[in-house]
Every structure is written in C-alpha cells, then in structure tokens.
Design a protein that fits this description.
The chain has 351 residues and is α/β, with parallel strands linked by helices. It folds into 3 domains: 64 residues, Winged helix-like DNA-binding domain superfamily/Winged helix DNA-binding domain (Arc Repressor Mutant, subunit A, Orthogonal Bundle), CATH 1.10.10.10; 133 residues, Rossmann fold, CATH 3.40.50; 128 residues, Response regulator (Rossmann fold, 3-Layer(aba) Sandwich). The protein is 42% helix and 18% strand. It has 11 helices and 14 strands. A 6-stranded parallel sheet has the order 4-3-5-6-7-13, sandwiched between helices. Helix 6 links the parallel strand 5 and strand 6. The longest helix is centred in the N-terminal third of the chain and has 17 residues. The chain is globular and about 60 Å long.
C-alpha cells in the first residue's frame, strides 16, 4: 500500500469500507479535512480523491451538506451467502483504524470459507455495550463469538460466564489475564523490545514512551518490552520520559496539547516509541509544532503503520491472527474444548 499514490490509498480505503458494508448507500463519508488528518495528506490530495470517486459514481457530493455514498454505487457491498453452519458474532470496540478494518475483512473471509455468516457489533469502547452485545448474540443463537476487548478492559463477567459454560469464544489482539480463555495476539512484548533495542543500538538514551493509560494486555506487554530493551543492555531507564494519555482524552485535541507540553518540558528527548499509530500521528503533530524535525532531531518508532514519512513501525500480521482465531473458534464449535493461546510474530518495517 505504501507504494500507491496517496490519493489512491484514500480511494481504496473508502471503497473497501463500502465493499465490507461499513459504509452503506446514503451514509456520509469523512470530510476532506477529516481525510487530511486521517491520512496525513494535503487538502488538495484528499479533495482529488473524493472528486474522482464522485466521477466514478461511487460518491455523491452536495454543496453545504457533505459527501455521501451514492444510492446506486458501483462498489457492491459484501453480502454473506446462506450457509448451513449458522452465524458467528464479532464484537469490536470501534471500526476507526486500519487494524480494525482488516480484522473485519479477514475474519469475514475465513469464516465464509468455513461456511459461517458473520454478524458484527461495535461497542464504542464501552464495557456495558460489550456485555449487552454478548447477551444479544447469545440470545439469537450465534454458534460462537470473536471479541476484541475494549481498550480499558481487564475483566468481564459475561466473558467469564461464557468460558465456564464452555461456549465457543476467542479473544483477538488482547487477552484478559484473570480469565482463562482462547486468544490470539501479536508479539506485543517482543515487537516493542526489538523496536526500542534498535533505537538504543543507534545510540539513543533519552527515549520517550508514549501510551494510553495501561489498561489492557497489549499496552502492558508493550511497556514490558520497552523496559526489557533497557534492562538487557544494562542501560538506566528514565521513567520521567514515560507519557501516559488519559483514555477520555485520546480522541480529542487535548491529547495533542498534552503531548506538546510533555516534549516542551523534555527538550533532551532524542527518540520516541508510541504504542499505536494514532498516538504516532499525535506525536508527529506535536513535534512539528515545536519545530523539531523527524528523524533529524527526534527519531520515532511505532506499533502499526502510521502512514507518516520517515517512521519505522512494528507490523502486525492481521490476516494470520484472524485465520488462527477462526480456526480456534471452529475447533471449539466442533467439540474440541482445549483452550489455546496463540502469539503471532510481528515484523519491523523501515522507511
């Protein structure tokens, strides 16, 4: 994807959302300003991408109202075929990131190959909505559940109850340490360790760690990987350079201001690791405001592709994660009660 022109990346992203049924005829698509922020492109690039899709008949533009998916679009949504094996429920906190969207894409692909229909519920990072989704799906008779727990989740009694009842369930990308259930995650600890070790090997010692509050297994394991890199090299770690963002500030401009002030107070920072691509974008914006060049003044490394120049990243294998999760779930449905915890390798990608 990195080899495609930026306007083409935006077009492919919108087409994929339509084909997966995330965007439906009549739905409003992100504005050109929103697309510039999401893809870190110029306004003219975003505008050209949208105009081209409108010319193809995929989008409809209305002066003063916005841009919408055309009522009769040439990109048809994916419609699940009727199968004999029944439905599987997928519960996710959001559908905002590329990781979320690939999760949906590959889960649907491999469930369809196994003969199952996928039905989806988005919880908006709410534990209460996740619990309600579990109740709803269980009530309508789904054969099993795939769940990406919310960002602040360490325990859910509904998941524990399903596990005790031996109902088929697999957790994806995150696991709950106090509930023994099947899960498929990335090498969060090892991936972060390798990234930070790379920065240490280049001579950096003042390395910032930028993360949401440590509220789930992924952020906790990535923090452990950061520490391990320093410990293994016997380099003192300065935790005053750790910056945790409150969960209620993540989706607002407050987080950029907070990060801006953090770097302003620590001008000696020469490198930074962010635990996800969203935070990488916020750090990039804050450093640019401070007049600090990347990578000349501050070198960055992040988890997940940031779509920003000169930033290496830890790449998760979303397709293998989804394929493995589906295989685990199907085995449970077919009577194999043995729980399995799979850890899928990551790779480091350099610009």
């Amino acid at each position: 994807m990195r080899d495609k022109p930026l306007y083409k990346q935006i077009q492919d992203h919108i087409k994929e959302q339509i084909s997966l049924g995330i965007l439906r005829p009549g739905d409003r698509v992100p504005s050109e300003v929103e697309l510039t922020r999401q893809f870190s492109v110029s306004l003219i690039t975003a505008k050209n991408a949208v105009i081209a899709l409108a010319e193809e008949g995929i989008l409809s533009r209305f002066q003063g109202k916005g841009t919408f998916v055309a009522e009769s679009t040439k990109t048809e949504p994916v419609i699940a075929q009727q199968h004999d094996k029944g439905c599987i429920g997928l519960i996710v906190p959001s559908m905002d990131t590329r990781v979320d969207q690939r999760l949906l894409k590959y889960t649907e692909k491999y469930l369809r190959q196994q003969g199952y229909i996928l039905t989806v519920r988005i919880t908006n990072e709410s534990l209460a909505e996740e619990t309600e989704a579990i109740r709803l799906f269980h009530g309508i008779g789904v054969k099993g559940l795939l769940i990406l727990p919310t960002v602040n989740e360490k325990y859910n009694e509904s998941i524990l109850r399903l596990t005790l009842d031996k109902f088929p369930i697999v957790l994806i990308f995150r696991y709950l340490k106090n509930i023994h259930t099947s899960s498929v995650i990335s090498e969060d600890l090892q991936g972060t360790f390798q990234a930070v070790d790379y920065l240490l090997n280049k001579g950096h010692r003042k390395i910032a760690f930028i993360s949401p509050e440590n509220t789930n297994s992924a952020t906790e394991d990535r923090a452990l990987g950061f520490e391990k890199a320093f410990i293994d090299r016997k380099v003192p770690i300065d935790k005053s350079l750790w910056c945790f963002i409150a969960l209620d500030a993540l989706d607002s401009n407050k987080s950029v201001e907070f990060i801006y002030e953090f770097f302003k107070e620590h001008p000696d920072i020469t490198a930074v690791f962010t635990v996800n691509a969203i935070l990488a974008g916020k750090v990039y914006t804050a450093l640019k405001r401070l007049g600090r060049q990347i990578p000349q003044d501050v070198e960055m490394f992040t988890f997940d592709q940031p779509n920003l120049p000169d930033i290496p990243y830890v790449s998760q294998d979303e397709e293998t994660i989804c394929k493995t999760a589906v295989e685990q779930l199907v085995q449970q449905i077919e009577g194999n009660d043995q729980l399995s915890q799979a850890v899928i390798p990551v790779t480091l990608q350099y610009p």
